[in-house]
Specification:
0% helix; eight-stranded antiparallel beta sheet
């Protein structure tokens, strides 16, 4: 007898707290924290590790003119999601190398319980609800739009959006490295205090339930005529070292602070974090999402 297909239920209103990665890469952390994270060339890192979902990204070095400066930085060029669902394991990947910087039409692929699928941007098919635009894997819905993909899970919304390097209007300022980057956004769909497994990962750990953001290391702003090499690795805002978040493969879930598959996990211990504390603004609904309209 075939297993019953899980039907996604309506989600509660999203949490006003969001977080994510954008640009080269700038981190927006839970409760208003900020940090920069260069990564290491062609190295995988975990951004979010939660009870039923884990998100890894790959960074690649590149150079571009930004605000008149030559910036030797990096960009997120791959995003890989693993989720445990009622239909089996979901493995999903978005590859910036598959995207044209001129059109930014989306393309991504994955498997649901071993069944392969792919998602494409709306410009390639008019069927928003067609199998190439929307996939349901157990209780998870994956919706492709023109460029971006939104994954709706029981506890999280995860968005992945391709962007030209350094930005669409300034592609002439690209100098070397990847021509398309990925920006990611994370938002809770349930109250933060209801989580039995407090999330971790470079970004996920900032959802620690205390209402106070912690900012980490940031690179200086580009200045016209300057040559800048980014070095910040979110020091002060993350537990341990950046090396603790390096992942062995695209869909690997195991690392020092992994929460994947856990039944219970307490929030991170913030007492050892040296970053600046910021009180979470009361009126910033959605403001921390990674897809803000900024130049880079």
């Amino acid at each position: 007898v075939p297993a019953p297909t899980a039907v996604p239920v309506p989600a509660p209103a999203p949490s006003p707290q969001g977080a994510g990665s954008k640009g080269d890469p700038h981190l927006r952390l839970g409760h208003g924290g900020k940090a920069d994270f260069r990564g290491r060339n062609r190295t995988l890192f975990n951004l979010l590790s939660a009870r039923n979902v884990s998100v890894n990204i790959l960074t690649e070095d590149g150079t571009a003119r930004i605000r008149g400066a030559v910036v030797n930085g990096s960009w997120v060029t791959q995003a890989h999601v693993v989720a445990s669902t009622l239909a089996g394991m979901l493995r999903f990947s978005y590859w910036a190398a598959k995207i044209s910087a001129k059109t930014l039409i989306g393309w991504s692929n994955g498997t649901c319980g071993g069944r392969p699928f792919k998602l494409v941007g709306l410009a390639l098919t008019p069927l928003r609800d067609g199998p190439k635009n929307r996939q349901v894997c157990g209780e998870v819905v994956l919706q492709a739009n023109y460029s971006s993909v939104l994954l709706s899970l029981p506890e999280w919304n995860i968005s992945i959006s391709p962007m030209a390097v350094p930005s669409y209007d300034y592609q002439k300022n690209w100098l070397s490295g990847p021509t398309v980057r990925l920006d990611l956004g994370f938002a809770l769909r349930v109250p933060e205090e209801s989580l039995q497994v407090a999330p971790h990962g470079i970004v996920g750990q900032s959802f620690d339930g205390d209402g106070i953001g912690i900012s980490g290391a940031r690179d200086p702003a580009p200045r016209a005529g300057a040559n800048l090499s980014t070095t910040a690795m979110a020091e002060g805002a993350i537990e341990g070292s950046w090396r603790d978040y390096v992942m062995a493969s695209e869909y690997d879930t195991a690392f020092k602070f992994s929460r994947f598959g856990a039944a219970f996990a307490a929030p991170r211990d913030t007492t050892g974090l040296t970053g600046e504390r910021v009180r979470s603004p009361a009126n910033t609904a959605g403001s921390a999402m990674a897809t803000e309209n900024e130049k880079y």
